[in-house]
Amino acid sequence: MMAQSVECATRPAASPFVNVADFLSDVARNFPDKPAIIVQRPLSSRPSDSAQHAHSAWRSRRTISFGELNAEVDRFARGLTEYGIERGMRTIVMVKPGIAFFVLTFALFKLGAVPVLIDPGMGRKKLIHCLEEIEAEAFVGIPLAHIARIMFAKSFRTVRKCVTVGPRLFWVGANLKRVRSESAAPFTTVDVHATDLAAILFTSGSTGPAKGVAYEHGMFAAQVRYLASYFKCGERDIDVATFPLFALFDVALGMTAVIPDMNPSMPGHVDPSRIVAAIHENNATQIFGSPALLARVVAHCEKNEVKLPTLRRVLTAGAPIPPSLLARLRSKVGDDANIFTPYGATESLPVASIESREVISETATQTQQGAGICVGRALPGMELRIISISDDPIDDWSDCSELQAGEIGEICVRGPVVTKTYFRKPAATKLAKITDGDTIWHRMGDVGYLDDSGRLWFCGRKAHRLQTESGTLFTIPCEAVFNTHPMVRRSALVGAGDASNQTPILCVETVSDSAVDQSTLTAELLAIGAKNDKTSAIRTILYHPSFPVDVRHNAKINREQLALWAANQLR
After folding, report:
1. What is the C-alpha separation between 33 and 284, in angstroms, rounded?
2. Which of 2.30.38.10, 3.40.50.700, 3.40.50.300, 3.50.50.60 is the CATH number of 377-460?
3. What's this model's pTM, rounded to 2 decimal places?
């Protein structure tokens, strides 16, 4: 059964058209004076762990209401149209989180253009390569982004329209302020169908080349409805927005988005006092954050005896979150607060979800014993299936071998938020999608299983499984067994040698920077592993000072890089 519908009053229920910008128009009509975006900067830019700093006054607090935001979106939609940015035009957006980011993105939605959004933290070379593939026709960005565009001009030869957010220096194009229309008349939202391309969002590239995911307007609308009907996000909420892309949903749902003082490309290095300050100063009811960010916030709260009583909802995604961190976080929020760990990917989100109470009381013990991490049940309208693992394309669902409950295989999903293609990546699309009549199954690239009650258990990335002489080893179940040792902060299972017969190696990051007796710890870890059938074959342990992680959430361990490091250590 599909999630409860959250319809836009902007269009009749029977309308064949849907535009994600319609949600903003509705909210602006119903709550014109409610703050839509609050951008904050602290009195001091000096990082601090003191509790006093968490309640410091703000040097800069810029606020825009929903009515004002919608009016600005209309002005810029008209101005961008007059400048020559048209319906269907792929438009690279490289703007820092803030009011301009929201205005520009929704203005592009409203006029029917296709914003292209990408993480700048992936590195210059990867970034340029991704943007070159898009063959964008327009480029909207800060001066530094335009300098990069000029330096790599051949990669952006298709760009015809340039808009600078800030001072325009030696390049052609327009300045954002001059693009803004003088007319205050409402801009008529362009009619688009649910299947029309809305945006191109790039994957993080943490387990392979970054790919542009083609999002349709209907998919965005379905995501908004899931957030409203399943997670109960809505106009009464104030969200501390630590991930800019997710914050776009805040506006569509009528939530106030608080933009904290942080580098969104480095959530694992955030000053937690500033996140806590954003929560306290605004009586925030929600935060969406990666496990790496939440771990820093929880540690800060524990050190300074700080609570987060206003939070009613915490959403965390991007990497598996340890049950122990969920338990620590629960102790800092109110008894009625919900902590969700939705499962999904850029290609399909949300797929499944579970609340922290169920994890702590029911599944955490099994996780520690090597069962994997339970990520919950499929959301209404989403279908989950487990098939035999294959590294080859599968053209039709009839060619799949479905597995029974308890059997580990590839996780596949279909439903209203499942994307259909990677932009101009036919080979990648063929490898990740399976046709089933007039629907598409997405191969998540993950392995796991369904239990007898229909809950999904995540066992790691398909590409990270190890083929050993004693059988196939999966990363998450094995690592969880060793993570029970109090001196282990986290571990990562990698392989060395021939791909068909790998030697399993456990890389360990300890909890403290202080000296560790590695010989003693190794003996203790091997003793723990020997007691479990899943880990008894792991006999090599290496210690790494700080695991490499993904650029988006700073939480996914880069096992490919660790494997190279481990191989060098063993030479």
Report:
1. 18
2. 2.30.38.10
3. 0.91
